[in-house]
Amino acid sequence: MRWLCLLLIMFSASALADVATPADVAKRIVALSPHTVELLYAIGAGEEIIATTDFANYPDAAKQIPRIGGNYGVQLDKLLALSPDLVVVWGDGNQAQDIARIRQLGLPLYISAPHTLQDVTKDLLQLGKLTGHEAKAAQVAATYQRQLQAIQQHNASKTPVKVFYQLWSNPLMTVANGSWMQQLLQVCRGDNVFADAATAYPQVSLEAVLMRQPQVIIKTAETGNPQSLNWQQWPEIPAVKNQQIYTIDADLLQRPTPRLVQGLTQLCQVLDRARSNHHSVLSGQPAQ
Questions:
Q1: Where are the domains of the chain?
Q2: Is the pLDDT of residue 256 over 80?
Q3: ∠ at Cα 174 (89, 180), nearest 5°?
Q4: Which residues form the Fe/B12 periplasmic-binding domain (predicted)?
Q5: From CA 272, how far away is CA 270, in angstroms rounded?
Q6: Per-residue model confidence (pLDDT) at position 223
Q7: What pTM, to 2 d.p., does this model score?
Q8: What is the mean pLDDT of the chain?
Q9: Domain spanning 2-151: CATH superfamily
């Protein structure tokens, strides 16, 4: 109850700047990204979604929602024909020209643009207000905050472990400071070997990975990228030599929704294993 009261005090007083409030609570919602669909289902507003975009696949019910767009953009003619009373877009994912056009058309608009772990809470509460699901949204937000804080506290004093996060294999890409994933690695005390790269999502070489000697490699499933990388060809890398290569569902890590807690828990567990393995190697004991 304490969490609910604090969250309502913090966020119920005013709407975010990127909100064009509908006249009444929204009942015909178009959610133009997978994570906004998840957020709406999480607060009990999933049944009000009348259209979405490709890759909106959670929960299972979301797979039945009609599609009106994807990476190529939004089919604005279909959007208008649906007469939505709320359009929820992803500020960093949907095309800027589509968002601008939706705004020009005068449709009630909410822009989800989470850049920090705390922004998930803001999205939940604001969407709850717009859809009339405030009580459920506050409950979900409070649970998320409590679980996130517990994970942060549990890992705060752990020894850093050197990690390479494989975002994509061909071309080989990773994450750095300024990326969403960097925040998660920091929570789990992962020392990102490319944190100091010039861009948030840099392309790197195998030689560069070898030079930085990561103790663990985290991969994600790469749908649409069949030329996956075989790390076993690089036994000089400690993570390869010590069999510390793990795969985690990217949706759990990279979608800013309450399910992020599951992905963060898995990430921290993986880094704990790598940390334990490293200590065993240093002490000459068999790896756990």
A1: 2-151, 158-283
A2: yes
A3: 35
A4: 28-275
A5: 5
A6: 61
A7: 0.87
A8: 89
A9: Nitrogenase molybdenum iron protein domain (3.40.50.1980)
